[in-house]
Specification:
Organism: Catellatospora chokoriensis
Largest sheet: 2 strands, antiparallel
Shape: globular
Number of strands: 2
Radius of gyration: 19 Å
GO molecular function: oxidoreductase activity
Number of helices: 15
Helix content: 55-70%
Strand order of the largest sheet: 1-2
Pfam families: MPAB_Lcp_cat
Order of helices and strands: HHHHHHEEHHHHHHHHH
Protein name: ER-bound oxygenase mpaB/mpaB'/Rubber oxygenase catalytic domain-containing protein
Strand content: under 5%
InterPro entries: MPAB/Lcp_cat_dom
């Protein structure tokens, strides 16, 4: 869910391409967003956010009742990655077009509350806000624990910037936490509504051992993935791990931080072509051209 594999959304026509060449998107160089989302280790953050999102009964019921994630988990992951990358590094037009598409998809979706029998919309602000906050908090907290140097002001700046992304999915930016303190307060308000439902437990087991693509299920790739998923789970706040019935001990936090920091160092040793995809490289090219 970072900039590593984004294909993005291309413009059409000479005039649009000329406009795109000077458009640095919703964020641009110098933003906390570009610093955070340049980190390939955020793939782990994406999985972390899915564990958190599953703890909201209505949010996870909406996913289960409307998604084919068990049939094609990697296709869904790549589409999500494309969307996030387009919003973070695409042009303004690309980001807005991606937002329109996702709003259109969500507007058609409904789910049924298993306890009340009530039918509800997937794009209710409460649900959109939960998904947004768990995603951005996972991104910035994982990047920081992996070793990216971010001051408290940088973190607050990131949350404030991400209100622009929240607006794309249909949220009122003013209703979205814009600082670390506001995110912490939001989590405190939400915790009484979270629980380990059957759908959440099923999602936990699936995320820990999904079918791997390209016939990798019986190769060492299985062990690698399981280790990454376990790290993502351990990176959650202690209160979230306790809802899952796991210990929220400080030693778990330390182990997770060491693991994700080592992963970041390992990934940084790889050639850039393996770490960043076309939409990220296009953004860097536009930024370089803007300084000439």
């Amino acid at each position: 869910m970072v900039a590593t594999a984004f294909r993005g959304v291309g413009g059409h026509g000479t005039l649009e391409r000329m406009d795109d060449a000077s458009d640095l998107g919703l964020f641009g160089p110098g933003s906390a967003t570009w610093r955070v989302h340049a980190e390939p280790v955020l793939w782990v953050a994406g999985v972390r956010s899915l564990f958190l999102q599953a703890l909201h009964p209505r949010a996870i019921a909406g996913v289960v009742q409307n998604s084919s994630y068990k049939v094609e988990p990697w296709g869904r992951l790549m589409r999500t990655a494309d969307y996030v990358g387009t919003v973070m590094f695409g042009t303004t037009a690309q980001a807005r077009a991606a937002g329109r598409r996702i709003r259109g998809v969500h507007a058609r979706m409904r789910a049924v509350d298993r306890h009340t029998g009530q039918t509800y919309r997937i794009d209710e602000p409460e649900l959109l806000r939960w998904v947004h906050v768990t995603e951005v908090e996972s991104f910035v907290s994982t990047a920081r624990r992996a070793g990216l140097e971010l001051s408290d002001a940088d973190v607050d700046g990131y949350y404030t910037e991400q209100r622009r992304a929240a607006e794309l999915v249909g949220l009122d930016p003013a209703s979205v936490p814009g600082t670390a303190a506001e995110v912490a307060a939001y989590y405190r308000r939400m915790r009484p509504e979270l629980s380990l439902t059957r759908e959440a437990l099923d999602t936990l087991f699936f995320l820990m051992a999904p079918p791997l693509p390209w016939h990798l299920g019986l190769t060492p790739a299985r062990l690698v993935y399981t280790g990454l998923a376990a790290t993502a789970f351990s990176l959650q706040p202690g209160w979230a791990r306790r809802i899952y019935g796991m210990l929220g001990l400080p030693t778990t936090d330390l182990s997770a931080s060491v693991s994700v920091r080592a992963l970041r160092l390992t990934m940084r040793a790889l050639p850039d072509r393996f770490l960043h995809g076309p939409i990220y490289r296009d953004a860097m090219a536009r930024a370089a051209a803007a300084t000439v």
